[in-house]
Amino acid sequence: MRLTSKVVLIGTFALGVAGSVVAQNGDAGKAAPQATAVEAQPVARLSLGDEVSAVGTLRSSESVVLRPETAGRIAKIGFVEGRPVKRGDMLIGLDASVQAAELAQARAGLSLAQANFRRTEDLFNRKFVSQRALDEARAGLRVAEAADQVAAARLARMTVRAPFDGIVGIRKVSIGDYVKEGADLVNLEAIDMLKVDFRLPERHIGSLAPGQRLTVSADALGTTPFPATVTAIDPLIDAEGRAIRLQATLDNREGKLRPGMFARVRLSLGDAQSVLVVPEQALVPTAEGQFVFRIVEGKAQRTAVQVGRRQGTSVEITDGLPEGAEVVTAGQIKLRDGAPVRTVAPAR
After folding, report:
1. May I ask the CATH class of domain 52-61+192-268?
2. How far apart, in whole angstroms, are the C-alpha atoms of residue 198 and residue 252?
3. Strand, helix or coil for residue 233
4. Architecture of the structural domain at 36-48+273-343
5. Are 277 and 44 in contact (CB under 8 A)?
6. Which residues share a beta bridge with 106?
7. What residues contact 200, with CB distance under 8 A and at least 6 apart?
8. pLDDT tens per residue, the chain (348 residues)?
């Protein structure tokens, strides 16, 4: 009996010890979870205008493909490809030996007609010839003058000149080539000023006017903005896309931009207003709408927000957050409502 009592006491003690260990382990399992490291920024105020964005294409202020008005063989090339030229500079000269001879012949005929008219006029004044003779001499002079002008025009057409200041492209011909009338010779581009064509939805038509300022950026040059001005608004709205076409000009005297570049356009339609904004990366989109994780007393609080306009990476908050509230900008994917968080410096 004594042995049995000892066994019972030892078993009871062992169970008590085991229960104590289990209780301690259970308490350890219920320890507070570790705080999640997140990046955060406060809700700030920003001067934000009613801005619209569009894409377009840069074009030369003036652009032309030079073509001869008459057929002939190329005798001269008066430019260096890719270099600037002035209006009136000789670019392509066709063989004009025949036209030069025709002009010389016309000039000789003109000299003879002028001398004949002077003699006839003198004789008429002295009553030696009739009025008819004077009229015939005057008509002969006019015919000779017209023939001289025609010959000069034919000779001039053998030379292709720059119609405006610009930069010549890469020529498609060489000296000695025989070209037909209207054949492509070389392109000429005026790029000191550039045009950008873009389209906006028709709902903005009441806010558009020539003279409005905008900025243009080219993907090839990063995010550098170039100031521009709206110069023309097409009176016809595209019936298929319900969009209105606009044209703006920008200064390109530094030559950083080139015609044909893809361009992004930002146009302000109204005066700037002070609004609340958060970084774009703070927003978490869902089927129900946008929300952010706001940090309140060290915990993440899921907060629904209403968004408005965008400018760069900033998004307007029209409802849901007060100024200065701290919102999570990185690490949201690991969070749930009420989870403890600790803020860390943004990764560099």
Report:
1. mainly beta
2. 18
3. strand
4. Beta Barrel (2.40)
5. yes
6. none
7. 52, 54, 208, 243, 244, 246, 267
8. 343 444 333 444 443 434 444 444 444 445 557 888 899 999 999 877 677 889 999 999 999 999 999 999 999 999 999 999 999 999 999 999 999 999 999 999 999 999 999 999 999 999 999 999 999 999 999 999 999 999 999 999 999 999 999 999 999 999 999 999 999 999 999 999 999 999 998 888 888 889 999 999 998 888 889 999 999 999 999 888 889 999 999 999 999 999 999 999 988 876 667 889 999 999 999 888 999 999 999 999 999 999 987 777 889 899 999 999 999 999 888 889 999 988 888 876
Sign of CA dihedral 252, 257, 262, 268: negative
Are 37 and 295 a contacting pair, CB within 8 Å? no
Whether 96-157 and 52-61+192-268 are alike in CATH topology: the answer is no
- As given in the structure block, the two tokens for residue 242 are 């319900």
Nearest-5° angle of CA 157, CA 158, CA 161? Answer: 75
Q: In angstroms, what CA-CA distances link 333 with 38, 287, 296?
A: 10, 16, 18
Q: How many CA atoms lie less than 13 Å away from 315 in the CB half-sphere?
A: 18
Domain boundaries, the chain: 36-48+273-343, 52-61+192-268, 96-157
Please identify which residue in the block is written with the tokens 């999640």.
Answer: 36
Domain 96-157 has CATH 1.10.8: no
pTM: 0.63
The residue assigned the tokens 């950026």 is 217
